[in-house]
Specification:
With 382 residues, the protein is of the alpha+beta class. Helix content is 34%, strand content 21%. It binds flavin mononucleotide.
């Protein structure tokens, strides 16, 4: 059997502190540190604790060449090799475990840089509910947080004495002022509110749509959008969850940026659509009634085609999403609607619901908008 190691593999040293009461009473140091290695591989959904023997085995197998299993069995023991094959950290050329090999190959073809690949893979959520996160739910207000943590770093920094500052003239009024000043993150949507079709159409086209298609090489096109994009590649796809948009059946859609059309993926009954909205935004009830939600889902390979194994590529895609989000907010504000963006999303569940590939596609954030209820149940900065 031929074997090699998966392509992106990093080991993290984890400390687990244990409290030993018996030692405490004997007057000795009562805390004991148990240090372990944890393997993080970009093609796996979960981390894998590894023993010293497994670590030694993994260190001796390269990621490029397929090698015979037999000498590894002799040097490290059959059980150790079996365990690593089963965990997916070692890959078999064929036979059982070929599934891992397929996923590992998708990682290789994507041209991910190892650390961002792992940062992305291991910051994804499934089934998370922010309300049940004790780190946040223990605080009801910002005042409670200040009391627990002390004040945050100040809201500004001063790098010169006041007398040395060069005062600037007041800003002149401009055509963007209207939406810029009206923009805010809405957290109180009208559960019966409807987004007019004309508003949804303008929002989607002016945020995610192509304003122009340019041939940049033979058979190769670039899209010109209202937001900038690293490498001009626009890797972020917009998937729409319609709850209440005039003339559109509730459900999941993919927005086609060139034809300016919605591609239906799945029709949903209104309660199902709301349940998905709530699950997508990890239980943030204050966003779940937005009638129109958009999932921003990059096709990594579109960017990494140019920025192969590049240290800045992942950051650039995150910034693409930020630009799109602000454009979305401004267009919503122009239409008199509050909007939101959240990065607290269940990426794994969203990918499953939308039929996205867990390795080739990503999920960065969800934004949405809709008419305000007029009540202030959840805080907004207006
Ligand atoms: C990247 C990003 C992630 C955010 N995630 C959340 C979130 O998970 N939940 C939420 O209620 N607001 C979220 N917000 C909205 C901010 O809380 C909001 O922008 C901030 O409170 C300032 O309010 P304003 O947008 O009305 O000026 C997010 C904003 C950004 C830019």
């Amino acid at each position: 059997m031929l074997i090699r190691r998966c392509a992106i593999l990093v080991f993290e040293a984890r400390e687990h502190l244990e409290f030993d009461l018996a030692t405490l009473f004997s007057g000795e140091q009562a805390l004991a540190a148990d240090c372990r290695w944890v393997a993080l591989a970009a093609h796996l959904d979960a981390e894998v604790p590894v023993s010293d023997a497994e670590l030694a085995l993994l260190r001796s197998v390269g990621e490029s060449l397929w090698v015979e299993r037999e000498p590894l069995d002799r040097a490290h023991g059959q059980d150790t090799v079996d365990a690593m094959l089963q965990a997916g950290l070692l890959l078999a050329f064929d036979g059982a475990g070929a599934g891992w090999r397929e996923r590992d190959e998708a990682v290789r073809e994507s041209h991910w840089r190892p650390l961002p690949a792992l940062a992305h893979a291991f910051s994804r959520w499934s089934g998370q509910d922010v309300a049940s996160d004790p780190r946040l739910s223990q605080f009801k207000t910002i005042r409670d947080m200040v009391q627990a943590f002390g004040p945050p770093p100040p809201e500004t920094v001063e790098r010169a004495l006041a007398a040395a500052r060069v005062a600037l003239p007041p800003p002149e009024a401009g055509p963007l002022d209207g939406p810029l000043m009206a923009r805010y993150t809405g957290r109180n949507y009208d559960p019966a509110g409807v987004v007019p079709l004309a508003v949804a159409s303008r929002l989607l086209q002016r945020t995610f749509g192509a304003q122009q298609v340019r041939e940049i090489a033979e058979g190769t096109a670039a899209l010109k959008k209202t937001s900038p994009s690293g490498g001009s590649l626009h890797p972020i796809e917009a998937y729409v969850l319609v709850q209440r948009v005039e003339g559109l059946a509730p459900g999941f859609y993919h927005y086609h940026p060139v034809t300016h059309a919605l591609e239906p993926l799945q029709a949903l009954a209104p309660p199902e659509a709301r349940a998905h909205a709530l699950a997508f935004v990890a239980g943030q009830e204050w966003f779940a009634d937005a009638p129109l939600l958009v999932v921003m889902a990059p096709r990594w390979r579109r960017n990494f085609w140019k920025y192969r194994n590049h240290a800045k590529a992942h950051r650039a895609i995150m910034m693409d999403a930020g630009h799109l989000s602000q454009t979305f907010y401004l267009l919503a504000a122009e239409a008199g609607l509050p909007a939101f963006i959240t990065a607290a999303v269940n990426e794994i569940d969203i990918a499953a619901a939308l039929g996205l590939d867990p390795i080739r596609d990503g999920v960065i954030a969800v934004c949405g908008c809709g008419p305000a209820s007029g009540e202030q149940v959840t805080v907004e900065y207006r």
